[in-house]
Each structure stands twice: as structure tokens, then as C-alpha cells.
């Protein structure tokens, strides 16, 4: 394992070196070396490329479509948060405002009661059906996480958290399924609200948010992060394949990472998912990307990225996945530096 750490610390990507030092080796965020690394991240080619499509006001284009996959403001902000862009960067405020103003637009959070399935035509409100909010809460959850992780919190983060807690389903999660018979939360729509609220609870000390985090985590823990409650089978083959980034989707590594951020990786029900992660380690000590959810293209295509995240290869390490895998194993007490 020592060799893989050495390789990660020699990476051309400052974000990989940062994550290795802080999340894997446990170095102090405030050390001079880590602060220098974060400034290197800010100046990196990857960040410059991700932020290249801004207008003269600093907003990501298309300005009125921040959710454009995967190059819109929503996704750029979440990416910067996950790869260690330094906090408190005022240059990101126009992008933050794009994202928060979009997801807190009165039309986006307007709650509408229905007795039967809501109409199929698209609208921006929140259908309430049989007491459950049918909302893609991954959107507000990701926005909340991004703003907090990037040191750009303001009063709108309180509003996002309040919305998420109000829309939380009885089983602890969230779902946008508008069928009346839908009674169970979605993994896809629950992971990012869990992440956002975990960061919010830590930042604010909110007891209500902490309770919401515990309830949301149960959606995953009761299923051991990938198995159905009823017959114990793998819920979705994609859940046990490794990807980076996951965007709004789910796999066990993304799940374990968020569970670790919530302080719950020590739960015994994580064991099977951790075992599976360990079983996927390559002979060189790293982990591969087994699938990807993006295409690298400068064109404005659906699911297009301006940057690559290492591609997919069965026998070659992907640095982004490897550093996250080492983080969850270290946090779970399955690996220790030195």
C-alpha cells in the first residue's frame, strides 16, 4: 500500500495530492503544505477548464440552465467542492448565486397538493401526494453541500436545509416518483441530501439536521448500501461498479464516502460494502473505474464534460476512485497510514 500512496503523492493532479494528504493521511487542513496545495488546485488546468465557460459577470453559461449536464453551474460548483477547491473564493459567488437562486426560485419550491398522480407535463413546483413531497431533492442537496464545502454559506443554505427536512419521507429519504403507490425513498435522490445535511449539521450544530441525517442514513444502512431489504439481492448492478464522478447517481463507493462524511462509517451494516470495495483492489494497490457516466466533449452535448476523470480500464488504477477508496477504508479503520 505504501507504493500506491507514493504514486498518489506524485500525481500531476494537485487535487489528488490534496485528497491523499488530508483525507487519506489525515494531515491538517491548515498546514502550510495543504494551503499551498489548495492554491495549486485553484490555478490548475482542470479548474481553469471547468470555469472557462463564464460570462462577463462570472456566471457559467448557459446562465439560465445551471443544471445542464455536466457543464452547467450546478455541476461545476459540486465538482469544485469535491476536488478541494479552496474555500471562500469570492470569484465563485456569481456561480453560487446562479445555483442557489435557481433551486430556491419560488416556482421551484412551491408545494402543490394532489389527490391523484400529478399531471405529466413539466412544471417547477413540488407535488405533495399522499403526504409525500415528490421532489428531485438531489438538486437542493447538492447545492447545499457545494455552498458549505466551498465556504460560501449564506442564509439561503438555511432555507435549502429547511426545504430538505420538510420534504423528507417517513422512511428517511427523498423521491421524485409521482406514482401514488411509491412509498420507498430513492437511493439516487437521497444520497446528496444526506451529504448536504451532514455538512450543514456539522457547520451549524443543528440538532434537527443531525436527526434528519441519521434518518436519511438508514435508507442506505438498512440495505447494507446495495442489497434489497426483502430478499437481500443486489438492488442494481450499477450500484456495485465503481464510477467517478457519480453526479446524481449512486454506487457503493459514493455511498460509503457520504456515510463516512456523516460520521457513520463505523456502523456494522457497512461491512459488506467495505468488503466489496476491498475485493476490487488491483495488484498495484489502486482501484479501477469500472464505468463512467460522462463523455469528454467540447461540444454542448448531453452528459458531456470538458475534462476527463481518468477513463475506464479494468486493470489500470483510476486516481480519483483510488483516493476515495483509501479514504473510506481509513475512516472505517481498515487501513492506517505508516
Number of helices: 14
Q: For the CA atoms, what is the radius of gyration?
A: 19 Å
Low-pLDDT ranges: none
Instruction: Tell me the domain tally.
Output: 2
Please provide the count of β strands: 5
Q: What profile does the largest beta sheet have? A: 3 strands, mixed
Q: What is the SS-derived class?
A: mainly alpha
Q: Which oligomeric form is depicted?
A: single chain
Lateral arrangement of strands in the main beta sheet: 1-2-3
Question: What's the helix and strand layout?
Answer:
Elements lengths: L1 H8 L4 H11 L7 H11 L2 H6 L22 H10 L10 H11 L2 H4 L1 E4 L11 E4 L2 E2 L4 H12 L5 H13 L19 H18 L2 H15 L30 H10 L9 H9 L15 E2 L7 E2 L13 H13 L7
Parallel strand pairs: 1-2, 4-5
Antiparallel strand pairs: 2-3
Helix pairs in contact: 2-3, 2-14, 5-8, 6-8, 8-9, 8-10, 9-10, 10-11, 10-12, 12-14
